[in-house]
Design brief:
single chain; 248 residues; alpha/beta; eight-stranded parallel sheet; two-stranded parallel ribbon; 7 helices; globular; binds zinc ion
């Protein structure tokens, strides 16, 4: 596996749900208020960040394609309907690309893996996912059922990784190149399975600049949380660059 190359800093930001929420008590890093999201997107522009696709980040990090300035990738896990309803209009306003990681076995269904939440938010259907592709949204895989991959028997983990890729490819009619580990949970075997299944790169929940990735299948991200003020957001973006591994 190749090491990332020196390039201007790239932060991969991690979002889950964007919308209007009553001050959530738990899983706060899974929510972002839509007004705050708008302010964050405006700040990226104002502060001179270039918002690039994950493909462009991959090329800069691993294929030696020059990147002119510090850049950001916007990633959204799980494929909630509120991505299309609330986040996408704002992304379109700024012309930003993004990557959305869908759970292939639960398209059009509630996010049933979420424990302890009374209402399970709905996930985008196959036809809505297809519609997103014309809006600069790359679709990646987030497994079939959102399990903790390191805890599954290897054959089952393999099915979650490889079959979700082919299922989404069937839905979209094009290759699915990127993967995100549910809960950021993986181990070396899981990581190797993701590579063997034919993905180009994978995103973790370890914190840090993408430039600190040990390889293309362990790219760190920066989680944006419900409680992040605009200053907090900027701090994560500009200062919190050191790699900090997170295994749950
Ligand atoms: Zn997830």
């Amino acid at each position: 596996m190749t090491q990332p190359r020196p390039t201007p800093p790239i932060s991969v930001l991690m979002y889950h749900q964007v919308g209007k929420f009553k001050d959530p008590k738990t899983h706060r890093s899974s929510y972002c208020e839509v007004d705050r999201f708008h302010a964050q997107m405006a700040l990226l522009k104002f502060a001179g960040y270039q918002v690039i696709s994950l493909e462009e980040a991959y090329s800069a990090l691993f294929a030696n394609v020059a990147l002119p300035r510090r850049s950001v990738v916007l990633s959204f896990d799980d494929g909630y309907e509120n991505f299309a309803d609330d986040a996408l209009p704002i992304l379109a306003e700024f012309g930003y690309p993004s990557v959305l990681f869908a759970v292939s076995g639960l398209l059009g269904q509630p996010a049933k893996w979420l424990a302890g939440e009374r209402e399970k938010p709905p996930l985008l259907s196959a036809s809505r996912l297809r519609e997103l592709r014309s809006a600069k949204v790359e679709i990646g895989s987030h497994t079939i059922s959102h399990p903790r991959l390191s805890r599954l028997p290897p054959e089952q983990a393999w099915r979650e990784i490889a079959d979700s890729k082919s299922e989404l490819e069937q839905v979209l009619g094009e290759p699915v190149k990127f993967f995100a580990y549910p809960y950021g949970d993986y181990n070396p075997d899981v990581r190797d399975a993701v590579e063997r299944a034919g993905y180009q790169a994978a995103l973790t929940c370890s914190r840090g600049l993408a430039n600190t990735a040990p390889n293309a299948f362990e790219i760190p991200r920066k989680a944006i949380s419900y409680g992040d003020s605009l200053i907090g957001f900027f701090w994560k973006l500009a200062v919190k660059n050191q790699r900090k591994d997170r295994y749950e």
